[in-house]
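Standup notes
- DV: blocked on the single-chain target, sequence here:
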Amino acid sequence: MEIKFIINQLKDEKPYLKSVLDLYERVLNFNEKTEKVLEESKSEDLIDKILDEFSSIFEIPYEFVSFLKESLLRIGKDPFKEPNIILQLPIGEEKISNEDIKRALFILAKPFFIKFRKDLKVSKKFEEIGRCPICEKPVSLAMIDIDNKRHIVCTFCGHKEEIFRIGCSYCMQKICENIDLLVDEDEIRVELCKDCKTYIKSFKNDVYQKYKDPYLIDIISLPLDVVAQERGYIRRSPNAIGIEIIK
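- DV (later): unblocked, structure below
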């Protein structure tokens, strides 16, 4: 409830973000409902119940949800063991843009990635592969704790892990002079790698204590994404509502 109160305050303070905050509220609701589904339901019911929640919360037509289920069945793989198949479902809707489809599938995939993370025994570290060691996706978000240690936050599966304090989380170079910074009024930062043109968001513990949610911090700093991308830098993974490229 505290997060939702903060979101309502932000809608008043930042009306230009109201539409994305409204969507994030739905995403939070979906994540909460599907977390209960994963805890309480039998394995054979999980996909149906997750799709039902997706349809209800995001007002997705039943026909489209049925199409998603049929597509999953045709692939013949377990989406809880291979959650990437959700992101790759063949959707050929002429009335829906490719970008909107990608965002919808990203949001739908979250509970599958979370269960995958909880079931997987991880033997690798982020610094060994330069990707999230759970889902092997690039990371675009980091928290800096009270001890000045940096932790990556995966927007796909929710994995958090301490990494090197300064450097690029994509090309893994660690030369301070090759990183530029953008900072907004909330002290949320964008770290720009001059080597590979990747950027990552980061924020310190006091910012986290103010907003209580790393994904919300990522969303309210969308103007930083705009500036970074206008300068030719690339975000390598989407935020919690599926936005990766700002047009």
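- Follow-up: The beta strands are 141-144, 150-153, 160-163, 179-183, 189-193, 199-204.
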